Amino acid sequence: MAGNYLPDRDTNCHKQKKANCHPQTVICQPVWPAHTMQRVVRYDFPILNYFTEIHITTIPLMLKYSCIIVEDEPLAVEILTDYISQIPFLELKHVCGDAIYAMEVLQQEKIDLIFLDIHLPKLKGIDFLESLKYPPRVIITSAYQEYALQAFDGNVTDYLLKPIRFSRFLKAVNKLNQQAPIQAAMPGLSVPERKFLFFNVAKKKVKIYLDEIFYIESLREYVRITAQGTTIMTKFPLNEVEDLFSNNNFIRVHRSFIVSKERITAFSATEIEINGIQIPIGRTYKEFVLSVLEGPAVN
């Protein structure tokens, strides 16, 4: 990560050292391109009742791009793996010997970048690229330059000819930080905002994402919130919790339990199963719960 760059000198500041020159820094929101932030250095001179904002610095933020290599030649894989290991913002997730395996990886994980060979077994690289509705960024690695025009029609980031020099590789991957976020090229595609709440736990405010909550259990004056990877206890009446969660895909199934509908793995007329835990359905809640989960209750 780049350091915090300041001007080499500021004439006014040097002249007024004895006048209590106070540098102050304001950090703004991230800006595009290159995942940067703007940093404004403001110098105040209280005795002179004067200030000046003299400098704006762009500070790159180090982001990691998860990537895969789709290549069937061992030597090419070895070279690319070595090159990737030298780039701090690249993280190699998988090496795929063919495009079919690469498809499986893309279905299971979020991948930001593909290093893609053209001549692959089973399915050619260009055909694989054209089969992806919303491909991640792609850098072609090929010994054949005749596919370059077709590749750039597919909006690839760069086209590297084998044998690939490290300097040329570095130039290609640096283009990642010069491009707009990948979502911008996908009309109608947006990343949903994750909702969260802060709860008082042992004199601290603990953030819990709503989509990670399994269920909430009443323990008199307290509630126990069981979520993915954590369980917390907080002082909160269950009735108030029910009001808080009513519009967020949660349902009360018992006088002591509120559950996430998305986390239900199985249910019967008497209980709900979430994350391997059986939670009872209260008699007064049965008709409503079953109507929500499967339609009108059947006696």
Protein described:
Helices cover 22% and strands 37% of the residues. With 299 residues, it is an alpha+beta fold. The strands form five sheets. A five-stranded parallel β-sheet has the order 5-4-6-7-8. Strand 6, helix 4 and strand 7 form a beta-alpha-beta unit. The radius of gyration is 28 Å and the shape is elongated.
Helical segment count:
8
Overall pLDDT score:
77
| Portion in beta strands | 35-45%
Main structural class: alpha+beta
Number of distinct beta strands: 18
The radius of gyration over CA amounts to 28 Å
**Uncertain spans, ≥5 residues at pLDDT below 50?**
1-45, 47-61, 183-191
Summarize the structure.
With 299 residues, this protein is an alpha+beta fold. It contains eight helices and 18 strands.
Record keyword descriptors for this entry:
disordered N terminus, elongated, alpha+beta, five-stranded antiparallel beta sheet, 18 strands, five-stranded parallel beta sheet, single chain, 299 residues
Q: What is this structure's SSE topology?
A:
Elements: H1 11-15, E1 22-31, E2 36-45, E3 50-60, E4 65-70, H2 74-85, E5 90-96, H3 99-108, E6 113-116, H4 125-131, E7 137-142, H5 148-153, E8 158-161, H6 166-174, E9 196-201, E10 204-209, E11 213-219, E12 222-227, E13 230-235, H7 238-245, E14 250-254, E15 257-260, E16 264-267, E17 271-274, E18 277-280, H8 286-294
Parallel strand pairs: 4-5, 4-6, 6-7, 7-8
Antiparallel strand pairs: 1-2, 2-3, 9-10, 11-12, 11-15, 12-13, 14-15, 16-17, 17-18
